[in-house]
Amino acid sequence: MKKQDVPQDHDMNEGVKEIAYAVDRDGRYVKVQSLGWEAKNAANAQAWEQIEAGVAEVIQKIASGARSPLAYHMAVNLMDPGLLASYAGISRWRVGRHLKPGGFDKMKPEMRRRYADIFGISTEQLGLVPESDFKSGFDSELKSEHKSGYEPNREKRR
């Protein structure tokens, strides 16, 4: 693509420019700043919609007692059990155990600290999840007036 043809469609980047490579008048590749293009912005918007829907589903599972708050923090950080296990230096099985409410409740303080450090939050925030559907975006802060503490479902599951 030629330097003058680099798209400058505003949308997902919110004014932040990215680097694209284009050909200048002399036929050399040069770096050109771009605000993005429509097709890329549409694809990114669809991907974020799917991520937000996944986070909302995780919140519902936590509210129903099927998952622990660890699942929420994994979802908003776009992690799966294997990746979190790798970061924490533990087995995937242990992460899976901590994703269950009973396993989360029995987790040792040093393990809570390790997870909190990975997510960049406090150990208290590790047990907090939003009270309602996830609509505020990924950059919302965990504030006590907008969050509720984790209340495990004490009924036995079959």
Describe the structure.
The radius of gyration is 21 Å and the shape is elongated. A hairpin with a 5-residue loop joins strand 1 (18-23) and strand 2. The strands form two sheets. Strands 1-2 form a two-stranded antiparallel sheet. The N and C termini lie far apart (60 Å). It has helices at residues 38-63, 69-76, 81-88, 92-98, 101-105, 109-119, 123-126, and strands at 18-23, 29-34, 128-130, 147-149. The protein has two domains: 3-36, no CATH class; 40-149, lambda repressor-like DNA-binding domains (434 Repressor (Amino-terminal Domain), Orthogonal Bundle). With 158 residues, it is of the alpha+beta class.
The CATH C-level name of the largest domain is: Mainly Alpha
Which regions have little confidence, pLDDT < 50, spanning 5+ residues? 133-158
Strand content: 5-15%
Strand order of the largest sheet: 1-2
Count the domains. Answer: 2
The residue-averaged pLDDT reads 80
Largest sheet: 2 strands, antiparallel
The Cα radius of gyration reads: 21 Å
Number of strands: 4
How would you summarize what this structure contains?
The chain is an alpha+beta fold and 158 residues long. It has helices at 38-63, 69-76, 81-88, 92-98, 101-105, 109-119, 123-126; strands at 18-23, 29-34, 128-130, 147-149.
Observed structural traits:
158 residues, alpha+beta, 434 Repressor (Amino-terminal Domain), 2 domains, two-stranded antiparallel ribbon, two-stranded antiparallel sheet, 7 helices
